[in-house]
Protein backbone atom coordinates (compact mmCIF):
# COMPACT_ATOMS: atom_id res chain seq x y z
CA UNK A 1 0.00 0.00 0.00
CA UNK A 2 1.19 3.50 -0.79
CA UNK A 3 0.79 5.56 2.37
CA UNK A 4 -0.13 9.12 1.45
CA UNK A 5 -1.50 10.18 4.80
CA UNK A 6 -0.88 9.06 8.35
CA UNK A 7 -1.86 10.87 11.48
CA UNK A 8 -1.99 10.28 15.19
CA UNK A 9 -5.64 10.48 16.23
CA UNK A 10 -6.14 9.68 19.89
CA UNK A 11 -4.83 7.89 22.99
CA UNK A 12 -7.73 5.89 24.38
CA UNK A 13 -8.07 4.13 27.73
CA UNK A 14 -11.43 2.55 26.96
CA UNK A 15 -14.33 2.30 24.53
CA UNK A 16 -15.46 5.90 25.03
CA UNK A 17 -12.16 7.03 23.50
CA UNK A 18 -12.22 4.72 20.47
CA UNK A 19 -12.90 6.39 17.09
CA UNK A 20 -16.46 6.03 15.87
CA UNK A 21 -15.94 5.96 12.11
CA UNK A 22 -15.84 2.15 11.84
CA UNK A 23 -12.64 1.94 9.78
CA UNK A 24 -10.92 -1.46 10.05
CA UNK A 25 -8.32 -1.72 12.83
CA UNK A 26 -4.99 -3.53 12.92
CA UNK A 27 -3.67 -3.88 16.48
CA UNK A 28 0.01 -4.15 17.35
CA UNK A 29 1.13 -6.02 20.43
CA UNK A 30 4.56 -6.85 21.78
CA UNK A 31 6.81 -6.51 24.76
CA UNK A 32 8.25 -3.11 25.61
CA UNK A 33 11.27 -2.13 23.53
CA UNK A 34 10.73 -4.86 20.96
CA UNK A 35 10.60 -2.29 18.16
CA UNK A 36 6.88 -1.67 17.77
CA UNK A 37 7.07 2.12 17.34
CA UNK A 38 9.91 1.77 14.83
CA UNK A 39 7.84 -0.74 12.88
CA UNK A 40 4.84 1.60 12.76
CA UNK A 41 7.03 4.50 11.63
CA UNK A 42 8.61 2.34 8.92
CA UNK A 43 5.23 1.13 7.67
CA UNK A 44 3.94 4.69 7.31
CA UNK A 45 7.20 6.25 6.07
CA UNK A 46 7.56 8.57 9.02
CA UNK A 47 10.60 9.13 11.16
CA UNK A 48 8.84 9.85 14.38
CA UNK A 49 5.06 9.76 14.35
CA UNK A 50 4.94 6.80 16.72
CA UNK A 51 7.14 7.45 19.73
CA UNK A 52 10.31 5.37 19.78
CA UNK A 53 12.64 4.63 22.63
CA UNK A 54 10.34 6.18 25.17
CA UNK A 55 10.66 4.81 28.68
CA UNK A 56 9.54 1.22 28.30
CA UNK A 57 6.02 0.84 29.58
CA UNK A 58 5.34 4.55 29.52
CA UNK A 59 2.86 4.25 26.71
CA UNK A 60 -0.10 3.15 28.73
CA UNK A 61 -2.90 3.81 26.29
CA UNK A 62 -4.25 2.47 23.04
CA UNK A 63 -2.72 4.82 20.50
CA UNK A 64 -4.68 5.23 17.28
CA UNK A 65 -3.00 6.12 13.96
CA UNK A 66 -5.25 6.70 10.95
CA UNK A 67 -3.70 5.73 7.63
CA UNK A 68 -4.98 7.02 4.25
CA UNK A 69 -8.39 7.42 5.85
CA UNK A 70 -8.68 3.67 5.22
CA UNK A 71 -7.61 1.93 8.40
CA UNK A 72 -6.17 2.37 11.87
CA UNK A 73 -3.05 1.01 13.45
CA UNK A 74 -3.79 0.60 17.14
CA UNK A 75 -0.61 0.49 19.19
CA UNK A 76 -1.28 -1.48 22.37
CA UNK A 77 0.77 -0.86 25.54
CA UNK A 78 4.00 -2.86 25.54
CA UNK A 79 3.97 -5.70 28.03
CA UNK A 80 6.60 -7.31 30.22
CA UNK A 81 8.07 -4.20 31.75
CA UNK A 82 9.30 -5.28 35.17
CA UNK A 83 9.25 -1.90 36.90
CA UNK A 84 5.53 -1.48 36.50
CA UNK A 85 3.42 -2.31 39.55
CA UNK A 86 1.21 -5.35 39.63
CA UNK A 87 -1.89 -3.19 39.95
CA UNK A 88 -0.89 -1.13 36.93
CA UNK A 89 -0.30 -4.33 34.95
CA UNK A 90 -3.76 -5.58 35.87
CA UNK A 91 -5.31 -2.31 34.73
CA UNK A 92 -3.58 -2.59 31.34
CA UNK A 93 -4.45 -6.26 31.09
CA UNK A 94 -8.13 -5.51 31.56
CA UNK A 95 -8.02 -2.64 29.08
CA UNK A 96 -6.25 -4.66 26.38
CA UNK A 97 -8.43 -7.70 27.00
CA UNK A 98 -11.59 -5.65 26.66
CA UNK A 99 -10.36 -4.11 23.43
CA UNK A 100 -9.26 -7.39 21.88
CA UNK A 101 -12.44 -9.23 22.81
CA UNK A 102 -15.04 -6.59 22.13
CA UNK A 103 -13.84 -4.30 19.36
CA UNK A 104 -15.92 -5.18 16.34
CA UNK A 105 -13.78 -3.33 13.82
CA UNK A 106 -10.60 -5.18 14.85
CA UNK A 107 -9.41 -7.30 11.91
CA UNK A 108 -5.92 -8.54 12.73
CA UNK A 109 -3.46 -8.55 15.61
CA UNK A 110 0.20 -8.17 14.74
CA UNK A 111 2.35 -9.70 17.45
CA UNK A 112 5.80 -8.18 17.19
CA UNK A 113 8.68 -10.26 18.49
CA UNK A 114 12.48 -9.97 18.32
CA UNK A 115 13.98 -12.32 15.73
CA UNK A 116 17.20 -12.53 17.72
CA UNK A 117 15.72 -14.18 20.79
CA UNK A 118 13.31 -17.02 21.52
CA UNK A 119 9.83 -15.67 22.36
CA UNK A 120 9.48 -14.58 25.99
CA UNK A 121 6.99 -16.19 28.36
CA UNK A 122 4.84 -13.09 27.88
CA UNK A 123 4.96 -13.53 24.08
CA UNK A 124 3.89 -17.16 24.47
CA UNK A 125 1.07 -16.22 26.83
CA UNK A 126 -0.14 -13.47 24.51
CA UNK A 127 -0.19 -15.78 21.50
CA UNK A 128 -1.95 -18.57 23.43
CA UNK A 129 -4.54 -16.16 24.73
CA UNK A 130 -5.26 -14.81 21.24
CA UNK A 131 -5.52 -18.30 19.79
CA UNK A 132 -7.84 -19.34 22.58
CA UNK A 133 -10.26 -16.73 21.26
CA UNK A 134 -9.55 -17.65 17.62
CA UNK A 135 -8.21 -14.20 16.80
CA UNK A 136 -6.37 -13.78 13.52
CA UNK A 137 -2.72 -13.17 14.39
CA UNK A 138 0.33 -12.35 12.32
CA UNK A 139 3.74 -12.78 13.92
CA UNK A 140 6.26 -10.18 12.83
CA UNK A 141 9.85 -10.98 13.72
CA UNK A 142 11.64 -7.66 13.73
CA UNK A 143 15.30 -6.57 13.95
CA UNK A 144 15.99 -9.08 11.15
CA UNK A 145 18.90 -6.88 10.06
CA UNK A 146 20.74 -8.01 13.19
CA UNK A 147 20.83 -11.65 12.07
CA UNK A 148 22.58 -12.84 8.90
CA UNK A 149 20.17 -14.33 6.38
CA UNK A 150 21.96 -17.66 6.56
CA UNK A 151 20.73 -18.00 10.16
CA UNK A 152 17.15 -16.80 9.66
CA UNK A 153 15.70 -20.29 9.20
CA UNK A 154 17.18 -21.45 12.48
CA UNK A 155 15.58 -18.53 14.33
CA UNK A 156 12.25 -18.94 12.54
CA UNK A 157 12.12 -22.59 13.57
CA UNK A 158 12.77 -21.72 17.23
CA UNK A 159 10.01 -19.09 17.18
CA UNK A 160 7.45 -21.33 15.46
CA UNK A 161 8.11 -24.17 17.86
CA UNK A 162 8.13 -22.07 21.02
CA UNK A 163 4.84 -20.38 20.13
CA UNK A 164 3.37 -23.59 18.71
CA UNK A 165 2.18 -21.48 15.77
CA UNK A 166 -1.11 -22.66 14.38
CA UNK A 167 -4.26 -21.85 12.45
CA UNK A 168 -2.31 -20.85 9.34
CA UNK A 169 -0.90 -17.76 11.06
CA UNK A 170 1.80 -16.07 9.05
CA UNK A 171 5.29 -15.16 10.22
CA UNK A 172 6.92 -12.21 8.49
CA UNK A 173 10.56 -11.19 8.78
CA UNK A 174 10.93 -7.46 9.28
CA UNK A 175 13.49 -4.75 9.78
CA UNK A 176 12.76 -1.13 10.58
CA UNK A 177 16.34 -0.35 9.60
CA UNK A 178 16.29 -1.80 6.08
CA UNK A 179 12.57 -2.04 5.31
CA UNK A 180 12.71 -5.79 4.80
CA UNK A 181 9.20 -7.23 5.12
CA UNK A 182 7.38 -3.93 4.74
CA UNK A 183 5.70 -4.73 1.40
CA UNK A 184 4.90 -8.25 2.52
CA UNK A 185 3.27 -6.98 5.71
CA UNK A 186 1.19 -4.38 3.84
CA UNK A 187 0.04 -7.05 1.38
CA UNK A 188 -0.93 -9.30 4.27
CA UNK A 189 -2.81 -6.49 6.05
CA UNK A 190 -4.71 -5.70 2.84
CA UNK A 191 -6.14 -9.23 2.92
CA UNK A 192 -7.83 -8.33 6.23
CA UNK A 193 -8.91 -4.76 5.51
CA UNK A 194 -10.21 -5.50 1.97
CA UNK A 195 -11.35 -9.08 2.29
P1 LIG B 1 9.01 -0.13 21.28
O1 LIG B 1 9.22 0.13 22.73
O2 LIG B 1 8.54 -1.51 21.03
O3 LIG B 1 8.16 0.89 20.59
O4 LIG B 1 10.47 -0.10 20.61
P2 LIG B 1 11.21 1.02 19.73
O5 LIG B 1 10.60 1.10 18.37
O6 LIG B 1 11.33 2.27 20.52
O7 LIG B 1 12.65 0.34 19.52
C1 LIG B 1 13.48 -0.02 20.61
C2 LIG B 1 14.94 0.05 20.17
O8 LIG B 1 15.19 -0.94 19.15
C3 LIG B 1 15.33 1.38 19.54
O9 LIG B 1 16.65 1.68 19.95
C4 LIG B 1 15.28 1.11 18.05
O10 LIG B 1 16.16 1.94 17.31
C5 LIG B 1 15.70 -0.34 17.96
N1 LIG B 1 15.08 -1.01 16.80
C6 LIG B 1 13.76 -1.12 16.56
N2 LIG B 1 13.53 -1.82 15.43
C7 LIG B 1 14.75 -2.16 14.92
C8 LIG B 1 15.19 -2.89 13.76
O11 LIG B 1 14.42 -3.40 12.93
N3 LIG B 1 16.54 -3.07 13.61
C9 LIG B 1 17.44 -2.54 14.49
N4 LIG B 1 18.74 -2.78 14.25
N5 LIG B 1 17.07 -1.86 15.60
C10 LIG B 1 15.75 -1.65 15.81
UniProtKB/TrEMBL annotation:
Cofactor entry: Mg(2+)
Domain of life: Bacteria
Keywords: Cell cycle, Cell division, GTP-binding, Magnesium, Metal-binding, Nucleotide-binding, Septation
Matching InterPro entries: G_ENGB_dom, GTP-bd, GTP-bd_ribosome_bio_YsxC, P-loop_NTPase, Small_GTP-bd
Domain (EngB-type G) ranges: 22-195
Signal sequence residues: none
Regions crossing the membrane: none
Family: Belongs to the TRAFAC class TrmE-Era-EngA-EngB-Septin-like GTPase superfamily. EngB GTPase family.
Family matches, as NCBIfam families: GTPase_YsxC (TIGR03598), small_GTP (TIGR00231)
Biological role stated in the UniProt entry: Necessary for normal cell division and for the maintenance of normal septation.
Name of the featured protein: Probable GTP-binding protein EngB
Organism: Paenibacillus motobuensis
Name of the gene: ysxC
